[in-house]
Each structure stands twice: as C-alpha cells, then as structure tokens.
Amino acid sequence: MCGRKPRCAGFTLLELLVAAMLTILLTMIVAQAWRHLSVGLADSAARTRCGQELRLALNSLSRDLGIAVAATPLEAGRILLCLDGGDEPNGLADWAEPDESVEYVLRGGHLLRRQTQTGQEFVVAADVGDFAIRNIGGTVELTLRVQRGAVQRQASLTWSPP
C-alpha cells in the first residue's frame, strides 16, 4: 500500500465542466456547418425541381404542338389546340371528331391539359409562374416560366400552321 487514502471513483467537477464545454463547442460547430450545407442542398433541390417541371411542361406541349393543325390563343394563360386525328388525318382543323381539341390553361400555379371532348384534365407541371401566349402573324409563341423560391427557369416554344 502506498499510504494514501483510496480515492472514490468518479469525475471531478472540473473534468465535468471541461467535458460540457467541449460538447457545447462541438455542437455549435456542427450546427453552423449543417446550416451552410442545408442552404446549398435546398438551392440544389429547387433548381432540380424547376428543371423537372419545365421539362415536363415542354415535353407535353411539344408532343401536342407537333401534331396540331390549329392553335387558338384564348386569353392570358390559355390556348386551344386542334390535333389532327382519325385513321387518315386530313391535315385540316375540323374542330370536331375525329380531331381532338386540347386546351392548356394556367390555374393556381399549375399548367393543366384538358381534353375538351371528354373533359378529362390533369396537371402537366407545377410551380408555373407564367404561361404567356403571343400570336405573331399566324405563328404562336408560348413562353413558360417555372419558379420555386428564388430559382426560376424559362423556355419558349414557337408553333406555326403546317
């Protein structure tokens, strides 16, 4: 035996204080790093979402405009397309069977596609800030702007009668 009194097992108050301070310091560093990382992640997610929504809208519009024989701008954010149909498409806008009429309309930040004969309607793209339609001497120019937070993307399509 060394002649000293045996010490009780445990930590001293000073050791506990140092451990608590180190834990608080480490937590503050991690919180700051996470804050900076999460801003970048949110921005990246917004950019990706804008790109996806714009691509969905452009794909749907391109598909319908590719077979359209007539396009009529109705009012702000609304256009009516006549899609040539039937077994033997005639290349004329009949606006009746077997042709199909499709309307694109911007409502509540969503671009909707509606088949006028059946009334079937579905959302083509969300987060749409603007859907502008201009008729320039028979040529129709469609401009679509998608916005999510501070991020926005814009694209234009031009259609002319066949």
The helix tally amounts to 1
Overall average pLDDT: 87
What are the low-pLDDT stretches, counting only 5+ consecutive residues below 50? none
Order of helices and strands: HEEEEEEEE
* Overall outline: rod-shaped
Quaternary status: single chain
Number of strands: 8
N- to C-terminal separation? 106 Å
State the secondary-structure class.
alpha+beta
Side-by-side strand order of the widest sheet: 1-2-3-4-5
- The percentage of residues in β strands lies in 35-45%
Radius of gyration: 31 Å
The helix content, as a percent range, equals: 25-40%
**Sheet having the most strands:** 5 strands, antiparallel
User: In the residues, how many domains can be counted?
Assistant: 1
Walk me through what this model shows.
This protein is of the alpha+beta class and 162 residues long. The protein has one helix at 13-67, and strands spanning 68-75, 78-83, 100-107, 110-115, 121-125, 128-136, 139-148, 151-159. The strands form two sheets. It has a five-stranded antiparallel sheet with strand order 1-2-3-4-5, with helices on one face. The protein has a three-stranded antiparallel sheet with strand order 6-7-8.
What topology emerges from the helices and strands here?
Blueprint: H1 13-67, E1 68-75, E2 78-83, E3 100-107, E4 110-115, E5 121-125, E6 128-136, E7 139-148, E8 151-159
Antiparallel strand pairs: 1-2, 2-3, 3-4, 4-5, 6-7, 7-8
